[in-house]
Amino acid sequence: MALFVVIPIILIAVYAFTSSSGGFTLDNFSGMIDYAPVFVRSIWLAFVATVACILIGYPVALTISRMSPKNQRILIMLIMLPMWINFLLRTYAWMSLLENTGLINRFLASIGIFDLINSLHAGDLAYTPITHFQLINTDGAVVLGMVYNYLPFMILPIQSVIVKIDPFVIEAAQDLGANSRKVFRKIILPLSLSGVISGITMVFVPAVSTFVISKLLSNGTVMLLGDLIEMQFTGAAYNPHLGSAISLIMMVIVVICMSVMNKFGEGEEQAVVI
Questions:
Q1: Rounded to whole angstroms, how far apart are CA atoms 52 and 147?
Q2: Do the beta carbons of residue 195 and residue 163 sit within 8 Å?
Q3: Which residues sit opposite 24 in a β-bridge?
Q4: How far is CA 123 from the centre of its chain?
Q5: Residue 77, Cβ neighbours under 10 Å: how many?
Q6: 182, 274 in Cβ contact below 8 A?
Q7: What is the 3-state secondary structure (H, E, C) of the chain?
Q8: Tens of pLDDT along the chain (274 residues)?
Q9: In the CATH scheme, what architecture does the domain 3-99+135-265 have?
């Protein structure tokens, strides 16, 4: 099992520190500063998507955990249902929704939103009437695609942790005079931190390295690390040595982020004080 992990990493490292002639070189890393905007954008969009998944996923997970076991199973199945569909098809579905002539813009046009906006600028000669909102080929579209595809990976670990919290602990806190807000802040949130950290890891890692979502929902206008690496291995600018160097840096970033998350997660199972 370790061979399938160790050998690829060794090969990536070898390619990253060698040139096309096979000699040792650091040139693959020296030009990395040119791609700094791509690194920053990838980390930023992955961060935004992860935060959005937390804000959406935690309340959903908390709500599900308070339901009966039967309803919990039904809702978890519904959450997992889109995951049974091919990742590429799910992203293509969002393309049809966000396109300039897609379902969302057509719906807005049918209820007169664009006519209303244009009428408000009827006397402005410099105004160009709009026929659609630019939803696709934007950072927002990429983040939306990330949230949609990775949200279940945030909900499921949080829900699985919350549902295991001993109800007698919550009852004891309430008997001691803690209201619902204090119970959540002092009991539920600290004890569910391990699920949140697992969710962050499961969302941020694929989000920072994705290239399918950015390629389809931005048509190449929003370049992320995954797109850049893919270009080096399959594109016209074929350079597997540079692609390996970028991959190595990305792995370091991911390891650092995971280490930070694990550091924050230390001690979440310590005693809770009301």
A1: 7
A2: no
A3: 18
A4: 43
A5: 10
A6: yes
A7: CCHHHHHHHHHHHHHHCECCCCCECCHHHHHHHHHHHHHHHHHHHHHHHHHHHHHHHHHHHHHHHCCCHHHHHHHHHHHHHHHHCCHHHHHHHHHHHHCCCCHHHHHHHHCCHHHHHHHHCCCCCCCCCCCCCCCCCCHHHHHHHHHHHHCHHHHHHHHHHHCCCCHHHHHHHHHCCCCHHHHHHHHHHHHCHHHHHHHHHHHHHHHHHCCHHHHHHHCCCCCCHHHHHHHHHHCCCCCHHHHHHHHHHHHHHHHHHHHHHHHHHCCCCCCCCC
A8: 677 888 888 999 999 999 988 899 999 898 788 899 999 999 999 999 999 999 999 999 999 999 999 999 999 999 999 889 999 999 999 999 999 999 999 999 999 999 999 998 887 878 889 999 999 999 999 999 999 999 999 999 999 999 999 999 988 988 888 888 999 999 999 999 999 999 999 999 999 999 999 999 998 889 999 999 999 988 777 889 999 999 999 999 888 888 887 777 665 544 444 4
A9: Orthogonal Bundle (1.10)
Provide the token pair at 36.
């700094």
Please state the pTM of the whole predicted model.
Answer: 0.90
Residue written as token pair 């969009």: 45
The rounded distance, in Å, linking the Cα atoms of 224 and 207 is: 10
Alpha carbon of residue 187 to chain centroid: 27
Q: In the numeric block, which tokens belong to residue 221? A: 């206008």
